[in-house]
């Protein structure tokens, strides 16, 4: 149905403020970073045009950048398993829960509203080796004291250790989104499937999940892009250490800009992060929609 001319004007008037805010807060910094990525600049002296030198250095001559990129992919994988896998399992269990569903939702959602600084300090205590933190105490109690380690100082465990708090933090948020989508699944379809003798797994794979696929795609995009831009908890817990064992592209970009004062190269890394997120979104849409059409 065509909107009247006055209605279209009203829609544009109401859309204008958020579009202006989005342009100033999101698009302008991206364009500014793209511009600065072609220059060498320390924040004080004049800009010096270097063309594609920052990108050539990033792709061919910077081993730390590629280590950070590999760490980011590992960080992304752990976050997605915890956030999407955990959210889907908990949301599915909540559907079958008769009592206490509201309390469970509140408990799972609580980490999403806690300050990231508080979460970082909490997990720093949980991972502590001396004095023994909660994690090492549990290992000691169950007779696995040989596995006790300094989780944030061990190069073999630090990446997983900084990924878990981020995964835990947003599991509740994505659980709530998926739970709302599962509640919208028509009960008649489920009842018909049960009458035909469908198992719980068949009910989930043939009825529920196909119905919530659009929500699942949106949630996957949200979780992926947020993990690729993850910064605060890893930075607060380890600052990218030990060595570059937990360095992410975001923490490396931050230190390149504000520790090394190489704003041009840091801007090139930030452009890479934006492109990385766009490519990830494109791949998610392509894979999930192709699977839906199969």
C-alpha-based Rg, rounded? 23 Å
Give the biggest sheet: 2 strands, antiparallel
Helix content: over 70%
Task: Calculate the terminal CA-CA distance, rounded to whole Å.
Answer: 33 Å
Number of strands: 2
| Average of per-residue pLDDT values | 89
Structural class: mainly alpha
Q: Identify the overall geometry.
A: globular
CATH topology: MetI-like fold
What is the CATH architecture assignment?
Answer: Orthogonal Bundle
Order of SSEs, N→C? Answer: HEEHHHHHHHHHHH
Could you give a quick summary of the protein structure above?
The chain is mainly α and 294 residues long. The chain is built from twelve helices and two strands, in the order H-E-E-H-H-H-H-H-H-H-H-H-H-H.
What secondary-structure arrangement, pairings included, does this model have?
Layout: H1 5-36, E1 39-40, E2 48-49, H2 53-61, H3 63-96, H4 101-109, H5 116-126, H6 134-141, H7 158-183, H8 187-195, H9 200-228, H10 232-238, H11 249-258, H12 263-293
Antiparallel strand pairs: 1-2
Helix pairs in contact: 1-12, 3-7, 3-9, 3-11, 4-7, 5-10, 7-9, 7-10, 9-12, 11-12
């Amino acid at each position: 149905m065509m909107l009247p001319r006055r209605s279209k004007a009203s829609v544009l008037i109401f859309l204008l403020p958020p579009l202006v805010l989005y342009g100033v807060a999101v698009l302008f910094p991206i364009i500014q970073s793209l511009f600065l990525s072609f220059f060498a600049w320390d924040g004080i002296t004049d800009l010096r045009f270097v063309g594609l030198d920052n990108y050539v250095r990033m792709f061919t001559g910077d081993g730390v950048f590629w280590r950070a990129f590999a760490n980011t992919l590992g960080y992304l994988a752990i976050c997605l398993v915890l956030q999407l896998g955990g959210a889907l399992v908990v949301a599915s269990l909540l559907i079958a829960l008769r009592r206490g569903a509201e309390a469970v939702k509140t408990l799972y959602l609580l980490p999403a509203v806690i300050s990231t600084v508080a979460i970082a300090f909490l997990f720093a205590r949980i991972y502590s080796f001396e004095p023994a933190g909660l994690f090492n105490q549990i290992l000691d109690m169950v007779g696995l004291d040989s596995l006790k380690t300094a989780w944030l100082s061990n190069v073999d465990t630090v990446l997983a250790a900084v990924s878990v708090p981020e995964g835990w933090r947003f599991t509740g948020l994505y659980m709530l989104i998926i739970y709302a989508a599962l509640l919208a699944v028509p009960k008649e379809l489920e009842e018909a499937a049960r009458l035909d003798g469908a198992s719980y797994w068949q009910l989930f794979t043939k009825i529920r999940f196909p119905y919530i696929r659009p929500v699942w795609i949106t949630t996957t995009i949200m979780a992926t892009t947020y993990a690729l831009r993850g910064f605060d908890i890893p930075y607060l817990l380890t600052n990218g250490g030990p060595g570059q064992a937990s360095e992410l592209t975001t923490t490396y970009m931050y230190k390149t800009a504000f520790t090394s004062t190489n704003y041009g190269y840091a801007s090139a890394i930030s452009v890479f992060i934006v492109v990385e997120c766009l490519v990830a979104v494109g791949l998610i849409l392509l894979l999930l929609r192709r699977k839906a059409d199969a």
